[in-house]
UniProtKB/TrEMBL annotation:
Keywords: Heme, Iron, Metal-binding. Gene3D superfamilies: Cytochrome c-like domain. Residues 54-140 form the Cytochrome c domain. The keyword Heme applies. The lineage of its organism: Bacteria, Pseudomonadati, Pseudomonadota, Alphaproteobacteria, Rhodobacterales. This is Cytochrome c.
Amino acid sequence: MKWAAIFFALIAVSAAGWYILQPTHSQTSTQTDERMALPAGALATVRLPPSFTEQEQIGKRAYGAACATCHGVNGQGQDGVAPPLVHKIYEPGHHGDMAFVLAAQNGVRAHHWKFGNMPAVEGVTRAEVLNIVAYIRALQRENGIN
């Protein structure tokens, strides 16, 4: 009898934990709020700022051309490909702006994620990377990563 009570208590706690950890309806359904979207295969939900500065807009275009294929639209990451850049790991205090410049220039050995090493990004200038960083930082701020 005692084991049965423990068993049912564990099932109840597990079910409650599962329910709490499920994505909200807005994360799994078609988004009506265009500022928050979760494309197929994305690893994070990213809320978009209401507007971008000129540098951030330039960075967004450069990001789309050089980074989005692997890191996903708006830095959300791609399941099985690359991590989200809008993530606490990439906050300015842990990965400064130069870490992004060096990653694009030299590539990066995998150290936080199990996606494998990142190769250098060919044809992207330091100025373009700094614009991309400005865009990523704007996304991070909007998502509470400072």
